[in-house]
Every structure is written in structure tokens, then in C-alpha cells.
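Lab notebook, bench 4. We co-purified these components, and the gel suggests they stay together. Before we commit to crystallization screens, I want a quick structural picture of the whole thing.
Request: model the full complex, all chains together.
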Amino acid sequence: MYKGLEVKIGKLRLLNPVMVASGTFGYAEEFSDFMDLKKLGAVVTKTITLKPRPGNKPPRTCETPSGMLNSIGLENPGLNRFVSEKLPYLKKIGVPIIVSIASEGDSREFVELAKCLDEIKEISAIELNISCPNIRGQKSEGRSQNVRLVSQDPKATYAVVRSVRKVTKKTLITKLSPNVTSIEDIALAAERAGTDALALINTLLGMSIDTQTLRPRIAAVTAGLSGPAIRPVAVRMTWEVYRKTKLPIIGMGGITDTKSALEFILAGATAVAVGTANFVKPSVTIEIIDGLKEYLNKNRIADIKSLIGALKL
Amino acid sequence: MSKMSEIKIISNKNIKENYFKMVLDASGIARKALPGQFVNIRVSDGTQPLLRRPLGIHRVTGHQSLVTGIELLFEVVGDGTRLLSQKKAGEYLDVIGPLGNGFSVLGSRFSVLVAGGMGVVPLLFLAERIIQGTEKRNKVNPVVLIGSKTKNGILCAKEFKALGCDVKVATEDGSQGLKGYVTGLLEDVLRHYPLPGTRYPIYACGPTPMLKEISRLSQEYKIPAQISLEAHMACGIGACLGCVVNTKEGFKRVCKEGPVFYAKEILWS
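Here is the predicted assembly.
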């Protein structure tokens, strides 16, 4: 068995460091026509909430230079239907399943979700999505610039991570927003609160206007930017957080190929997640896994872990 | 089996103005394809444009027993379709498909097809399947209504006629056929067509305002309409939830549950 690509995220052992970014891979079954799901390092589900969420009004996506905007608004069937309808398929794949969770309000919903998921042994880890830019706070109807995400505030981040940490022994991953002045401060708060790993970055808040109709190209006006356009921002943030914390980082943001995956690893990521590129080429993760193996062989590197943070300055 | 493959371009011709017809050597897709389904094509190897372009399947080439490929008909409207128009015979394209839910071809003696602009794309394939599926002695050829802004935008009238369809045209500027919207022609058919009391299906594809009006007419005349919707798609395979439409049962994905829906399901905004 080839061991050169093995990495560890908290208690979670991955046969290779390539996973998928939440929200870009559905609940995996959508991709079964295009690839051998068993080859993935791990699957990260679309974010689920306690109650079903219908999501935001369309149009929800638009293409931008080397990227795209989305404001899906966490459409999902809710915890119960996730467990009864989506989880059976995920369990059968045979790779670690990481369930992404979010809350519309306070940390109680996170705690309740984590408690329920903690009891399901086939779930390997929980990812706290405290950084989705597309759910609206009650106070700020239609004015997203006033919305404060949990991950925009170190204290709120600490509180949520801490309360979830108390109810689960599963590997806990905290997903961070790039829409902050200092991502290190948020990362440190999550670390102090007991997260096992950090995932970064979520989408950058953006906006696009149709000059014919004078309307925003996304119904919710503002939306999350993803794709290669954001990669340099994501690599920079990975490097900044790597220097400040000891936690394993799952790096993501515009990864489209082996080279871009390696950039994140060199900047300090232990694992990487492919997001928007899954839409463009559904089997791209497999190409990246093969590409990483080839890179190690070609450069006579026995273990990918020796490349983590190996950036030369 | 993988739905994704590298497919050779047999031909890519500029049929008039900004309209192109491309034939792909895709017997695998052709064998499975149903009218109303689409393929999702990567038009650039780089990141610009980033996303694939979904294109309706216009026709299956070859014979019924031995299909050889698919034909696409597209208009150059932006960067993606411009790049596609520049592809040459012999080049390869990364194509996913067939995708989505197509039209259900109902075993009805008669049917009405309504196309607005590029809406002819899936309807020609549909007309072929309807005519192939109808027993000859029982056949009343479909009526095909085609609308566009001007006569330059009226496509495929000849092809529909060659199949034996009864073709009527409407243009907004009156440069060909009735002056006005294609939905005016539909109302005429619904009022006067010589099959009173018979329920027959309407199949439609075109811009949203047209589909909305067809939806209204189908309810007024109590005739079921299947409509093919268009939406911006990111993935085309049901994963991103980007292309949803509001229906009586909540949001549904145009790429997966659609693109064809029954008109009565849709909640128009």
C-alpha cells in the first residue's frame, strides 16, 4: 500500500490529502457517474442545518473572470432528512465522511447538530461552517454588509467552537472566512477553543452588475466569490495562519490542478479541498491525487508531509 | 459508466449570421439522448471562461438503428459561444452528457410545438421522435409555431416542414408571418384547431416571458404544456443548486429535475 500521500487531520487519517470543499460536491452521489469516489481523501458534505432550508431566490450563480459568484443560501434538507436520505449513500463509499454544519442563529443549533452527528459512527469529522456569507442576519434585511459572521469575530468564534467541542470527541474542523482584517486572530481563537483543524478559505464576498438591466446578477445582491480568481488570497491566508498556529490546515480556494494544490501544501496546508473546479471537471480531484503521487516520485520525495510549509523564503 | 468524454468535432458550420451548427462524433451520447436533454461543454482549457456551456441537443445523426452522433445549434452570444464557434472539425471537446430530464413524448395523435428564438433547438429533435413514434394511419402531423424578433431569427422552418410538420411563423416586426408574438399563434391554434374536445400536448422552449404566457394559456384551455427552461448553470449535474426554479413543491434544479417541467408546476415571479 502506497503511504507517501497519507496525512492526519486531528484524529482523522487520510490516505491522501485531497478532499472536496463543502457545497461543491453535493452529497457525493451527484459525482458517482464521473469518478471513483473511493479514491478521495475525504468527502465533505454540503452544509446541513437543523431544520430544512429552502435557500435563496434565483438567480443564485453567475460567472466572473476566472471565477464565479454564488448565493445558494445553504439550501439543504435539514438534519433528519440528511441522515435518512443522504447518509446511507455516503456511508457506502468507504472514505472518511466530514459533515459540514451551520446555524442561522446562536451556537445552540451547532451544539444540537454536533450532538446528533457525534452518535453516528460512520461520520469521521464535523466541519463548523461559521463563514457562509450568504445567510442573512435578522437585523440587516438585504444589507449584507452589516451581517457579522461568527468567523468575523474572535469572541463569537471561540464561543461556538468551545460549545461544540464540549459535546463531541470527533475531529472538529473550523472553516474560516477571508472577509476579515486578520484571519490569524480568528484562527487563534478557534485553536484556543479546541478545534482540531482549520479549513480556509470560504468564499470572498463579492458582487456583479448586469449593465443592460442595471440589476445585480445575483438575486441576493452580494454573493461568495470562488474559483481560480481567489487563489492568491487563499494561499496567502494559508501561509499567514500556518505561521501562527500549530493546527493542521485544510487549504482551499481556486485549486484546479496538481500545481495549485501543491501551492497550498507548500504554504502550510496539510490537506487541500477542491471546490469550484468540481463544477468544471467533475473528476479533477482524481487527477490531482495522481498528479501529487507523480510529483513525489519524480522529485524523490518519500512523504508529502515533508512538503507542508516547505516554502523557501 | 462515465458521462464525461473527449469527443471529436465532425463539423462546425456558420449557417447564417451568428448561428452555428456543430456535429459531434458522439454515438454514446446519441444512443441515450432524449429530446430536451442537454450536453455541457468545456469551451476553454484555461480558466476563462471558467464554467461549461450547456447546449440543448438539436438532433441525433445517423439512422434510428445506427446513430452516429449529435448535432448542436447555437447562437454566438458571449465569450463561451464565440470560442465554441471557432472550434474546427477534427478538434476534440470535453463533453458531459446527456444531462437532465427531457420531454415525455406522449402517445397523442396530435401535438403543438412552440419555439421562441433558439427554442427550436430541442424541438426539432422532439418533432422527429414524435413523428417516428406515431403510427402512420393514425397520424396528424404536429403543428410547429416559431417566433422571433425578425425573420433572421426564424430557424429550422425548412427542417420542420421536411418532417411533415405544419409550420406557422410569427415575428415581432412582422418581417415574416404573423406580426406579433408566437403565443398569439398558439392561442389561435387552441381556439380553432380541428380536434375539439381532444386533449393534446403542448411542448415549448424559448424565453421566460413566452413560457410564462404559454403556462397561462395551457391553464386557460386546460391543455397540459411541457416547457423547457433555461437557467445559468454552474455544474449542470445537480451538485451546486445554482440553477433552481421555484415550483409548487419548492425549488427544483433546472439541470436535474428539468430542464423540462410541466407548466403548471412552475411558480412564476
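The radius of gyration of chain B is 18 Å. Worth comparing against the SEC data before the next meeting. Chain B touches chain A at residues 1-4, 42, 47-52, 94, 96, 231-246, 250-251, 269 (CB under 8 Å).
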